[in-house]
Give the backbone structure.
Amino acid sequence: MKPYYYLSCGLLLSLALAGCAPAAPPSALASTGASATAALPTAAQPAATDTAAPSPTATVSATPTSEPTATWTATPVPPSPTPPATPTPLAGKLALYTFTSFEDAGGVYAAWDPDARRSLTNFAAPAAAASGGLPEQARHIAFANYAPLAAYLVARPPAAQLWITDLALSAPRLILDDPAGATLPTSANAWLELRWSADDRHLFVRLRSVADSFVVDVLTGERAPWPWRCTQVAVSPRSGRLAEWCQSQAGGPDWAVVEWGGAIWVSEQPPAEPVVGLAAGEAEPRWVWSADGAQVAYFAAAAARADVYLAEAGGARLLAEQVYNPGAGAAGLIWSQDGRRLMLRRDAVDGHTCPLYRNPMSTTGRTSKPPCWQVLETTAGQTLWSLGDSAERAAAFLQVPDLAEWQLEAAHFSPDGRRAAVLAEQFGFFMGVIVDVDTGEPLGIFPGPVEALSWGLFPETQGEHWQIAKP
């Protein structure tokens, strides 16, 4: 069999994803088309508690000591140990989901078997197929942090649509239909930010126009204006937990506080003692949340190499020194879902090696040792695996002489913390390898290029799908 690096963009575009009978849509997502629009509270919501949440029609009243009384029709969600949009698979296999967009041809969305050299293609045919609302037509996609969900924009000038779906595409749901392109961008090059809240309960849609930006409640489908930008992490005075603090972009002094567990309230005061925040000129956060919302891992500085800390409501501690920061938000820090392991890039350490790199354009043959992907356990910071531990076996598995002339950039960590997916590139050719972190053995391969990666279960039989359950 020929090496996978012979796969090019043109071949990827020829991948076809087979469908099967439509599945019933999950009731937790918004109804197709018109979603309710709600205003965020102008005063703080009560802190979430362990008591049962009010009914969807309940009116929440708050009377803070320093803020005016306000009401907001909403459904506060109490904290829970797992993200609210929790999948309930009927039966399935862990799969690596990949997406790549092409400027004039939509995208390629595929699922790959992490234990074999094959793709998984028995996607259930969704209702979105009739309207062309599949990720193959997507211009932008954003996988959720831990829930098996993805949000994506389908743009066909002059129209645009925003969708949210489970990863197996069994029930994509239309969140916003914009037939005239009045709100959503219709160009592949237009700026758009799709960002999930830490608990995957909300999707923040930021557009060039602050007035057009909005937030979507994934469970209810309600949309509300979102004139804020999340710039800091600090302890919430309402819940006593870490929360994201979002600064007004409309010239106001207020801050929106996004609690883990569903609540969003507005504070007239900035956080007293931020744990971490955006530096001047930083475009994206350099922190990433654990799946239970109790911790954040973050780069201590906006620099090419910076120390990584773990913080919780009670304080922060150093985990690793001089970690490579790719400069694209927190893309260099990846949690396992149980919070016991963290994937990052740094120089060889603790007896674990990094692969050599040799510039294929150089005539000297000199090699260097760039930082490489490693897995640390988060209690004591011990290194469990480094890409160098698997380099020789991965090269043989991929049928290439070695990995020295390949740039090893994108990566993702499976929810159980046992598999690492790493993408390599050379002269526009891409290949990906999936490695068992505990043994160092390569397990499977996937082609590139890849714009976004995520892990989730894949249905074993046609017609099986997930219901996205309310907490």
In short: Residues 1-90, 462-471 have pLDDT under 50 and may be disordered. The domain at 4-469 is CATH 2.130.10 (Methylamine Dehydrogenase; Chain H).
